[in-house]
Every structure is written in C-alpha cells, then in structure tokens.
Amino acid sequence: MVLTKPVTAEELERYAGDERYELIRGELVPMSPTSHPHGVLVFRLAMYLGIYIDQRGAGTAAAGEPGVVIERDPDTVLAPDVFVMLSASGSLADTPPDFARTMPDLVVEIFSESDRWPQVRRKIAMYFAAGVAHAWIVHPTDRSVTWMRADGRQTIFTGSDVLDGGDLLLGFRLPLDTLFR
C-alpha cells in the first residue's frame, strides 16, 4: 500500500492488497492471520449471536473482523472478531458497503497467542471511549469469557458457567461447555 500520512478510513477501505490492517490514529497496524481454533470460536460466537438476533427480528451481528470507524482526524478503524448492533436493520440490503460508522453495542475479541493484556485493554478502552458499551474477551486457553462494561464493571465466566446476555441480550444463554467443546 502506498502510504500517505495519516491514512484515512476511506483509503483503507479502498486498499485491495493481500495484507490486513487495523488503523490506529492514521497509522496502519498489520494483522496476522488467525489460528484455526480462533476461527472456530469466531464462527461459533457469530452463529449463536446471529441466531439470537434473527429470532428477535432486530439488530445485526457481524464477524470476520469487520471494520468499525471509531475515531476521525486522525482516523482509527478497529476490527473486532464479532460485533452486535441491536438497533441496526437485520437486512443485508440496508447494510452500507463500507466500514461500520455506527458503534456496536457489543464487541467480541478472541484472545490470541500473540495478544498481551495491555494491548487488549487499550483496544477495549478505545472502543469504550468511542461509545461501545460492552466487550467480551474470549480466552481459549483458560476457556473463559470476560465481560467488560464501559462503566468499569466486569464479569468472568469460567468452567461450566453459562454466558448470559443479561440486560443487553435478554434471553441469550450460551453454555461455555458448548462454546469451547
């Protein structure tokens, strides 16, 4: 990619190269391919969240590291593993063809082998500063999910717990044994 400083969200959207990037305050940050287990977890979470949303007939879930513009001038585009927008139309025809510019209600990040807690916490803080209210951090190695909220509250689900959607996703229940099977 030919770089102009700083890179904009629109320039990143038009980039058609083989490399994948997030954009942090105008700077490209390379993203490496994910592992097979990571992909399985992304699929499962997107599937269960998608079914939940489809059954309620409102909102949308997206997976596969869809871009979300969270800051402008300089631009920041992050790519969560999965996100949920409860107020969005569920129709693909109503989905804009570019990066999301509406903040998700929930972002999901699968903790990768290369991730470090300080980096993940910074990324979650950026989401919260942009207006995202909830984040799930999925830890494949210890088979847990940490639910972080913008107000500072945190809940950790482990073992045979059931990931409960609480007030955000009323009626959503996903046993961790099912997620990590």
Question: How would you describe this protein?
Answer:
By secondary structure, this protein is of the alpha+beta class. Helix content is 25%, strand content 29%. The chain has a six-stranded mixed beta sheet, with helices on both faces. A two-stranded antiparallel ribbon has the order 1-2. A two-stranded antiparallel sheet has the order 4-5. The mean pLDDT is 87.
Write the layout of secondary structure elements.
Blueprint: H1 9-14, E1 20-24, E2 27-31, H2 36-56, E3 60-63, E4 68-71, E5 76-78, E6 82-85, E7 106-110, H3 117-130, E8 134-139, E9 144-149, E10 154-157, E11 162-164, E12 173-175, H4 176-179
Parallel strand pairs: 7-8
Antiparallel strand pairs: 1-2, 3-6, 4-5, 6-7, 8-9, 9-10, 11-12
In short:
The protein has 181 residues and is α+β, with helices and mostly antiparallel strands. It has four helices and twelve strands; from the N terminus they run αββαβββββαβββββα.
Shape: globular
The level of helicity is 10-25%
Overall average pLDDT = 87
Which strand-content bin applies to the residues?
Answer: 25-35%
How many structural domains in the coordinates? 1
Number of strands: 12
CATH architecture tag: Alpha-Beta Complex
Which structural class should the secondary elements be placed in?
alpha+beta
Radius of gyration: 16 Å
Task: Give a quick account of the main beta sheet: strands, pairing sense, barrel closure.
Answer: 6 strands, mixed
The first-level CATH class name: Alpha Beta
Order of helices and strands: HEEHEEEEEHEEEEEH
Task: Kindly report the name of the CATH homologous superfamily.
Answer: tt1808, chain A
Kindly identify the CATH topology: tt1808, chain A
Distance between the termini: 40 Å
Query: Which consecutive residue ranges, at least 5 long each, have pLDDT under 50?
Result: none
Number of helices: 4
> Order of strands across the biggest sheet?
3-6-7-8-9-10
